[in-house]
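Operator note (shift B, R.M.): manual run for Acetophenone carboxylase-like C-terminal domain-containing protein requested after the automated queue skipped it. Running by hand, logging everything below so the morning shift can see what happened. Input copied straight from the record, untouched. If output looks odd, do not overwrite the archive copy; leave it for review.
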Amino acid sequence: SAPSKVTDIEALIDGFHSEHQREFNFRRDDAPVSIFRVGLTATGMVPKAELQKHEVRKNKPKTDKTRDVWFDGKAHTAMIFERENLTAGATFDGPAIVEQFDSTTVIPPNTTAEVDQYMNILIRVQE
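Run finished. Output pasted below as returned.
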């Protein structure tokens, strides 16, 4: 392996040739050296994440948008919600789709979705 701390490129190249000598019993100082993979493993302590807690107010979000979806070979009409418009305490039944800029959450039929105080969408299967 190369030195853990390299202050110049010449030391890195010399370290490579030294390791090559140790591993293969010869060295070619005139041969070009290419770095094609670098790995790093690190362990550290980080402070606990402070999640913003929102006030929960039970509500049924409204939407005029729907889309036809298929579950288990059957057509259903799903409500379409924008994630940014959902508030803590929102509850709604599936089928539904929650859209946001970086993901889509599918709420299947026979489930209930609830937005918790940390803005997670909890999906519960109805019994």
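Quick read of the result: The radius of gyration is 28 Å. The first strand starts at residue 66 and ends at 71.
Leaving this for review. - R.M.
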